[in-house]
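Minutes, project check-in
Item: structure for the 309-residue chain
Input as provided by the requester:
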Amino acid sequence: MKVWITGARGFIGQHLSRYIQQLSHDVAGIGHGHWPESERRYAGVNQWLNGDISQQNLDVLLQQHGIPDAIFHLAGGSSVGPSLALPLEDMHRSVSSIGDLLEWVRLRSPKTTIVMASSAAVYGAGHTSAIHEDAISTPYSPYGFHKRMAELLMESYSRSFGLKVAVVRLFSVYGPGLRKQLLWDACSRLSNNVDAIQFGGSGNELRDWIHVEDAAALLWKAMEHATSPCAIFNGGSGIATSVHDITKILCDEWSKGAITPSFSGKSRVGDPASLVADTSRLQRIGFKAAHEWSKGIVEYVEWFKGAQV
């Protein structure tokens, strides 16, 4: 197969491209930044186009690589914080890019399957149990709203023009190489030889952690089950884990029990109390996360320490 990945140079993109390469498919990528050939080849990307997700650039990639059998759309906004600081920029990154991609596929390659990486942020807050894909979407950050807008564009093009598409609402993706969010922030602070560390919130917030290698496998599985109209899948493990338990294992691994995390009791804007996936739909398509989160946190700490040497 010929596969394109938008945002292939990102954290999830590089793991997905490696996963697809191991399946012996041909991967091309488009996104921002200079990418040395040795690095992109290691990531499994045979062709790289540095630029926006525009119809003009997609035409260039078409000339270089040929008609894609599948496109994985990973470009776009990546977290709540930047969307609150620069909401218009986040909208352009998340919404305009998928609009250009869908229109290009409609006009140039209507047989191509599209899989979009969305976010559990579309669900919003107020959930006390595992969230099913059919739950009402009530985002309350620009990031969540923009991801939902992108999903609606996918649904619109699928229903109106028969495009075969799938959406994966990723929950808390982690793994070696992740250089942002909770794990990166915690390790960065611990690396300053502190003897205490405090996090926001109560520590009782529940999250669903999915290893990036599991996320890559799920995105591929979603491609195999893409439909018209749009198929939607939760991208989680279905296991509820408190932020306290995550940070406790991380601190124990870092300091061999010398540092215990504490919590301020003040939650950040956009932080729901519980965000855990109902995985019944994933079970029906034969997917189950393979990585155990506690071992994954230990792996992350080992990677971080090695990366700083």
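Outcome recorded: The chain has a mean pLDDT of 95.
No further action items on this chain.
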